[in-house]
Give the backbone structure.
Amino acid sequence: MIEFFINDQPVQADDNQTVMQAAKANGFFIPYFCWHPQLSVPGNCRICMVEVEADGGGWLDIACNMPVTKGMRVLTDSEKVRARRKETLQFITLNHPVDCGICDKAGECTLQDYHYEYNGAPSVSRDAKVHATKHYPLSERIVLDNERCILCTRCVRFTREVSKSAALGVQSRGDHSLIRPVEDGSFENDAYSDNVIDICPVGALLSRPFLHKARVWYLEPTASVCPGCERGCSINIWHRKDAWRLKALDQRQNARIDRVTPLENPAVNGPWICNKGRDLAQVFERARAEQAMHKGRPVELQAAIDGARAMIGAAKRPVALVSSWGSNEELATFHAALGQRFACYVKTDWLPAPSEVLEDELLIKPDKNPNGTAARALFPTLPADARSAFPPDTDLVLVWGEGFSFAQLPPDAKIVYLNSYLQPENGHADVFLPISVQTERSGHYTNFQGVINAFEPCFAKKAGVVDAEALFAALAAPPGKAK
Ligand code: SF4
Ligand code: SF4
Ligand code: FES
């Protein structure tokens, strides 16, 4: 460790740190565009300029690429520094369209923030701005606005250093420089491509599904866990704030997942997630099952619970297929309340989709279920030939969650089925019980490394559905006691 000084205050730093790293670690703010803690340092934007004091005068230099030295004295917000940042911002916005009014990044754009902090003045240039491509289709998922691009090259470095697709580059020179994808289409196949949307410091890289859907200040994030594979990445699920609830127009927007972004978690996913994690709305916003049924006929939820409890009580050889999407809490409750009553097996709710990346060296794991690790710690795995799990005299099967074909069930066994979505099997069960989804309740998953990660509810539970945890306690209660 060495000691140096930031704004006259002594600071301890590793001698291999840069001024930027040491400043951040000690709570001093220095602006940056091109620097990113997980990427190489190009030093191209110059906004991180700081003043180094020295005998006989000092100098200005960029903090992101300047190593700390013993006794060094750095000023992060001196008059000279502010003046240089103002000039830098004049230069960066020389050809920038400043169309914040129609830009999805407005509200979380560092160019906007730094402009107000360090510049605030209109452009001093009398020349017409250089125009570039406004809506370049970078991929099916991302649109690029070259006029807003400040050529920080974060997106280029991300594909070279993190996702390893090397799918983006800079074409041409000077004010004609353009970010472009390589021509073999590899950006389209980059399973992590959407991270460039987050790391772009301006509104140049935009998500097509989110494009012009919502102003970010109408939204708030809820901490959650991606159930897309056994990595269980930490995510933020963005949805409309209560204060901005729509009272007329399309009220479905009040309970809609607007976007999903990574929630930085060094123990699990760092600052990244894969594209599958961004598409969770396609999982959770499928048509929901909200009606309890008895052999396909709608019944009151309580009547269905009572019916299921009676069937479980009367069964002589019951078998349960446990969901690998159940939370730790639900699994523990099932184990305590019903684990002795059933022969239990963990089933695989989701298999990899045909075109899906099975596994890679960054995040993606082959088991496409979030909580198989916790489930398998309590119960054995369902054999590959599921029929071998059912003794000939099996008279009841409780199936929890998706992904199991009823054709594999013993033909004479009664079926109690717990599921959240509208599916044909629901009507074939003797008792069907609709259960809540992850975005409607809190809980934890245990990932493949044993890391436990929490999720919180973003939306109210639908009327007519029950939380599985409460349901298991009710199914185990003596007759007349269950609610
Ligand atoms: S598109 Fe965004 S991330 Fe890429 S170089 Fe331009 S400003 Fe930087
Ligand atoms: S790596 Fe797995 S857990 Fe992480 S975002 Fe992708 S699918 Fe979700
Ligand atoms: S952040 Fe240092 S030069 Fe860009």
Q: What stands out?
A: The pocket of FE2/S2 (inorganic) cluster (ligand 3) is lined by residues 32-35, 43-48, 62, 64 (CB under 6 Å).
